[in-house]
Amino acid sequence: MIEKVFAMPVSSDGVSYWVSPKWLVLAAVIAADGLLVSYDLRLGIAALVLSLAAALAWAYLSLRYGALSGQPSVRSSLLARADHQAAVRRKAANASAAQQGADPAERA
Fold first, then answer.
1. Rounded to whole angstroms, how far apart are CA atoms 45 and 33?
2. Residue 53 lies in a domain
3. 50 and 82 in one domain?
4. Residues of the domain holding 87
5. Which ranges constitute the DSSP H helices of the chain?
6. How far is CA 28 from CA 2, 23, 40, in A?
């Protein structure tokens, strides 16, 4: 039980898609661009072009290497391996405790 408390943070795989932090970042970018457009049209357009370039770069990288590529993530395989190792350790600890016997006087 304690292993689960100190495990790696929970990924966003189980969280609903709309709760993802990328939507907060997108909303902040849109709000900032709206403020820039209301201040100066050319500055707002320049910020919008930079934002779109960053979004296209993110989309390319996530389609090529990231979570959108369809391949299992490295993090999920590490978590599965850590869970397997913890199960093996628990099994070995239970087996050694069973070999030692339940009576502490017998061990001495």
1. 8
2. yes
3. no
4. 71-101
5. 2-5, 21-39, 41-64, 74-100, 104-107
6. 38, 9, 18
* DSSP, res 50: H
Tell me which residue of 69, 66, 90 sits closest to 11, measured CA to CA. 66
**10-residue mean pLDDT series, the chain (108 residues):** 52 60 86 90 90 90 73 76 93 84 57
**Whether residue 36 is found in the same domain as residue 79:** no
In the chain, the amino acid numbered 67 is A
As to burial, measured by CB atoms within 10 angstroms (0-12 exposed, 13-18 middle, 19+ buried), residue 1 is exposed
**pTM, whole model, 2 decimals?**
0.48
- DSSP 8-class letter at 17: G
